[in-house]
Amino acid sequence: MAPANTPHAETAQAKTAQAKTQFGYRRHPDQDRPGSSPAAHPVVIVGAGPVGLSLAIDLAQRGQRVVLLDDADRIGEGSRAICFSKRSLEYWDRLGVGDRMVEKGVVWSVGRIFHGESQLYQFNLLPEDGHKRPAFINLQQYYAEAYLVDRINELPEIDLRWRNKVTALEQRNESALLTIETPEGAYRLNARYVVACDGARSSLRQMVGAEFAGQIFEDQFLIADVKMTAEFPTERWFWFDPPFHAGRSALLHRQPDDVWRIDLQLNRYADPVLEKKPENVRPRIARMLGHDKFEFEWISLYKFQCRRMDRFIHGRVIFAGDSAHQVSPFGARGANSGLEDAENLSWKLDRVLRGKSPASLLESYHLERSMAADENIRESTRSTDFMAPNSHQEARLRKAVLSLAKETEFGKRMVNGGRLSVPCSYDTPLSSLDADTWRGGPPPGGSMLDAPAATSAGEPIYLTDAFRKGGTDFTLLSFSNGAPIDAPDGIKGIRIGGDGEFADPSGLIAKRYGAVPGAAYLLRPDGYVAARFRHPTRSAIAAALARAEGLY
């Protein structure tokens, strides 16, 4: 699969094992069925990138059988997405791969912004303690995909088929019929639902005739992954108008294996063929580093887009990740947003397939994730306009802001070198029902907050792990300073303190959730707050649960 937002992408001198994980094509019994009676499957996912792989694992852990198709036969080349957020790591914890990602990844939370040779300011994305996962890790996408494939190989519910390319789609009342091309010819599959995770150039998006509206930026950026030994700290460094790349911007990130990601803004009229040649890239990087003792791992040139589909659901076909929306790479909003698509969709699709919720529940996936896409596109566009001004007026504004930032705090806050990914807060129907006064805690539509806890035996555990260990159902988080709660069936419980299963040794759970007597939170299977209560009753919880399940 091609890297998202990289129409000119190609590998340069791949000298590591990044692209050597290759999977052989295998014939499947589905291919031996007559064309008039194709095999039927509940879910077919198209695209084995991070989003499709994660969604398949999530559905399989809920007991769903999944067919996962990809037209390639290997892990993608080049590092591509490298920056994964705390929220993504917590999701990968639930999928059983979080530890591997963090152990291999480079952990960071500090960033620095420079103008010319001078530092304007620095920031820390995770200034508070008491979270299991860091703010971000840097990890090449090929590692993330390899770990996800390893996890899939442990799950018999997933049938991962390489070199299976979808070439046609026919929508039916109760299913979607796919035509799939393989090295041994074509065959067909019926799926109750198809999830398109096939990237920025999604063929399925074209097959449903969907619009893809937004802004295409003409500025070009050069990516160079270089292998070298360097003394730079593990931080995100961003320059405006650096002395080594006058008039443009630059970005430096550390990756595992002594590989460094360098992004350099180029003239929009630069010739992509010439700019990608290693002999032309080397002098640029040498000027930046002050030496030429490095080797190229990957070189790419890209333009980017801030666009999305009008609707993420087209009949039996659901779109996720770059197939549904695209943003610039600055701010790490692409892959992380796609992973949030997967976790939002999985539990809803599972309930619909089991008949526990009506198909209309899937509409909430479109509403919530299109809201998130709009937020990401808005932030990404603002970052791009600041980093690569398109007009004389925008250039003057940036110059003024950078000048103010040298002397004022409010000027620093106006500098935009790529506002980094944070979980979206959904404007849910339950928000208007949150009538109680709260001094703290995540509101309905907000993501759950992590904090240290302890089991009744005194063993340390994090709240996100307690949530994960309870399974895949709705969860009621409550506190022992309130009366016991008679929760409806189908809701697991996490009770903190006193008579509860878990203790709050640091007091951070109570603080982060505003835990006055009686406080309780109904958490969705994806860790988002469905409702919160100061005075929870069985009927109030049941009503909130029914709304979250799409029952009314």
UniProtKB/TrEMBL annotation:
Keyword field: FAD, Flavoprotein
Domain FAD-binding as annotated: residue spans: 42-379
Residue numbers spanned by region Disordered: 1-40
Cofactor(s) demanded: FAD
Low complexity composition bias: residue spans: 11-22
Superkingdom: Bacteria
GO molecular function: FAD binding; oxidoreductase activity, acting on paired donors, with incorporation or reduction of molecular oxygen, NAD(P)H as one donor, and incorporation of one atom of oxygen
Stored InterPro entries: FAD-bd, FAD/NAD-bd_sf, RIFMO-like
Coiled coil: none
NCBIfam families named among the record's database cross-references: PRK08132.1
Protein name: 3-(3-hydroxy-phenyl)propionate hydroxylase
Species of provenance: Bradyrhizobium yuanmingense
Organism lineage: Bacteria, Pseudomonadati, Pseudomonadota, Alphaproteobacteria, Hyphomicrobiales
